[in-house]
Structures are given as structure tokens and as C-alpha cells.
Amino acid sequence: xxxxxxxxxxxxxxxxxxxxxxxxxxxxxxxxxxxxxxxxxxxxxxxxxxxxxxxxxxxxxxxxxxxxxxxxxxxxxxxxxx
Length: 82
What we know:
By secondary structure, this protein is of the alpha+beta class. It has one domain (about 15-80). About 45% of the residues lie in helices and about 20% in strands. It contains 2 helices and 2 strands. Strands 1-2 form a two-stranded antiparallel sheet. A hairpin with a 2-residue loop joins strand 1 and strand 2 (about 50-55). The N and C termini lie far apart (about 40 Å).
């Protein structure tokens, strides 16, 4: 099985999103990740954000590739237009 991320943007409410963000930030801080990248696998169940995994790295699989592909395309276009 290849991990390919989740839905982005999510269809969840602002309140759910904020709870997930706060939980990821607290978990990363607890692991000593204060700067740089943190990747979190989360679920929202029974009204609570729950941590599956927090790591000091980028996500893998096609989720990461899709995000960085478009970032490289936009950066290249900006350079060509300037």
C-alpha cells in the first residue's frame, strides 16, 4: 500500500480544523520539534483529534509529489516572468 495523503482542503468545519492543528502542534512540541517540518497522521473521532503519527519529516507518496510539483512549476514561472 502506498500512502498518498488525505483530502486537502478538508471539508471539516473551522472548529474541527483548529482542534486538529492545535493537537498536531502540541504533539510536535512534545517531541521537541520546534522549527522546520512536522508531518502528522491524524484522525478525528468521537469529537476529538487523535494522533496516529507525528514525525520531523515531509509526507511521502504521491501527496508530497503533487504539492511540490506545483510549487516548482510556480517558482519556475515566476522566474521566467521577472
